[in-house]
């Protein structure tokens, strides 16, 4: 995969630059927001529920265990850097895009 502006290869996997919108009707990839990938998450931004739902959504979309996905920066912000350990293809997120 050619690296997108929002997906960077790291030493142990990938770093994803995301713009996350909590409290959506359903969780889905919504396209680009500047140079970040916008993801809508159905969980509310209370007590870390949106971050947990984001990790679960990304793990399922990328085909990796949830334990391999963590919010590296921006846990309390909409703009986040998410670390994904292991081998995956960030292009798989396109399959999770809203239609």
Notes on the protein architecture:
The mean pLDDT is 92. This protein has one domain: YggU-like (Conserved Hypothetical Protein Mth637, Chain: A, 2-Layer Sandwich). It is 14% helix and 38% strand. Strands 1, 2, 3, 4, 5 and 6 form a six-stranded mixed sheet that branches. The chain is mainly beta. A hairpin with a 2-residue loop joins strand 3 (28-33) and strand 4 (36-41). It has one helix at 49-62; strands at 7-10, 13-22, 28-33, 36-41, 69-73, 79-85.
Element order, helices and strands? Answer: EEEEHEE
Radius of gyration: 12 Å
Weakly predicted, low-confidence segments: none
The CATH architecture can be named as: 2-Layer Sandwich
Per the CATH scheme, the topology name is Conserved Hypothetical Protein Mth637, Chain: A
**Total DSSP helices:** 1
Give structural attributes:
99 residues; globular; mainly beta; Conserved Hypothetical Protein Mth637, Chain: A
List the helices and strands and how they pair.
Layout: E1 7-10, E2 13-22, E3 28-33, E4 36-41, H1 49-62, E5 69-73, E6 79-85
Parallel strand pairs: 2-4
Antiparallel strand pairs: 1-2, 2-6, 3-4, 5-6
Can you give me a brief rundown of this structure?
The chain is mainly beta and 99 residues long. Helix content is 14%, strand content 38%.
